[in-house]
Specification:
The protein folds into two domains: about 10-180, Orthogonal Bundle (Helix Hairpins); about 210-365, no CATH class. Helix content is about 60%, strand content about 5%. It has helices spanning about 20, 30-45, 55-75, 80-100, 105-115, 120-130, 140-160, 210-220, 225-240, 245-255, 260-270, 275-290, 300-315, 320-325, 340-350, 355-365, and strands at about 170, 175-180.
């Protein structure tokens, strides 16, 4: 079995639209997901396919095991479903930023793009397609694609409304294809705690770390730094090149008065994304403490260093922290004598972020 679906949400970074596979709305709850899954499972059960040939039965088994079951596992579990729904909404934002073309979308999707009552029309069109979705498995990929197109258009319309940016259908280029577009004057870049609402110069690739980041940020606001570190380590295992995890890890280390460990994390964040706002602010804070971060990579050695830094950040050992903070003057990079070196090292590693500025505004007060 080989389904190549290259439309709708599937267009965006090889994303898998589990809602389209099950034929449920993008905001479906656990009960709706389970009800739909049981209906599909009964339809694909061997007892329901007694009149079909062996090839059709084999295809039904593969569809159930490789498409339907994974989608149900993702959407039936509370934590997985919530994290996935966040990613789905982020896909809507990404589509707006990239002005995704709908020239080759179905007529139903194009109608939804212009619909006055988008919620009502979305539910009705999705229900109509879902009723026939698993009747003919040879056309299943086409129907999943059409459902995913509806999902994408709906997300674009909803995200556009939430952001108070009217969404229009415009002509795209000389080919005359329709595209979802936003006004020519986007809002100014702003800094934000949440991984899902930061406005950046370039559309941000969706990350498996988003859920971990969200929980880590909540722990930081509560000053539960140990729990935040655990969430960020899990996030880095899921997405080791997500600069946001590294920068937030560095901020957590600063709160824990581990400036040396913070330096490692902040440096890695800036290697991955030189424009990471948190990392840049933390870098300035570290420099005020006497910790300079040299971002110039040594020829032929950047990848090895990056790998070591990533492993050190996600593995964060106590021994590394204690040996760094307890080092004698001879190991100081500033070239000062032993007495002043020890004093500077002690001051640096003891310096947690003061209230005020970025750190105070984000993490200095409980809501």
């Amino acid at each position: 079995m080989s389904f190549e679906i290259k439309t709708g949400l599937f267009l965006l970074d090889d994303f898998v639209d589990h809602h389209a596979i099950l034929g449920v709305p993008v905001d479906a709850d656990a009960q709706a997901v389970r009800k739909r899954y049981l209906k599909i499972a009964r339809k694909l059960h061997p007892d329901s396919l007694a009149t079909l040939g062996d090839a059709e039965k084999k295809l039904a088994t593969q569809v159930l095991s490789k498409l339907v079951n994974p989608a149900y596992e993702m959407l039936s579990q509370e934590r997985n479903r919530k994290e996935y729904q966040i990613l789905v909404r982020l896909k809507g934002k990404q589509a707006i930023q990239q002005k995704v073309s709908i020239a080759n979308f179905s007529d139903d999707a194009k109608k939804l793009a212009k619909a006055g009552n988008v919620d009502h029309d979305y539910q009705q069109q999705l229900k109509t397609l879902a009723n026939d979705q698993y009747e003919d498995l040879s056309a299943l990929d086409q129907l999943i694609g059409k459902l995913s197109e509806l999902n994408l258009i709906y997300l674009i319309r909803k995200e556009g409304n939430v952001a108070s940016r009217p969404t229009t259908v415009t002509q795209a280029g000389a080919q005359g294809g329709a595209a979802i577009a936003t006004p020519n004057n986007p809002p100014q870049n702003t800094f934000n705690n949440g991984p899902s609402t930061t406005v950046q110069d370039q559309p941000q690739r969706m990350s498996l770390a988003d859920g971990y980041l969200r929980r880590a940020e909540e722990y930081v606001r509560k000053r539960a730094y140990a729990q935040a570190v655990l969430e960020l380590r899990d996030g880095l295992r899921a997405a080791p090149k997500d600069s946001r995890c590294h920068s937030l890890m560095g901020i957590v280390y600063l709160h824990q008065k581990q400036a040396t460990m913070a330096k490692v994390s902040i440096k890695r964040a800036l290697e991955l994304n030189p424009k990471d706002v948190r990392a840049l602010e933390a870098k300035r804070h570290l420099e005020r403490l006497g910790h300079q971060i040299d971002l110039a990579p040594a020829p032929g050695s950047s990848s090895g260093l990056a790998g070591r830094n990533s492993a050190q950040t996600s593995g964060g050992s106590t021994n590394s922290s204690s040996s760094s903070s307890g080092s004698n003057g001879s190991s100081s990079s500033s070239g000062s004598n032993g007495s002043s070196s020890n004093s500077a090292s002690s001051k640096s590693d003891a310096g947690a972020p003061k209230k005020g500025g970025l750190f105070g505004g984000l993490f200095g007060k409980k809501k």
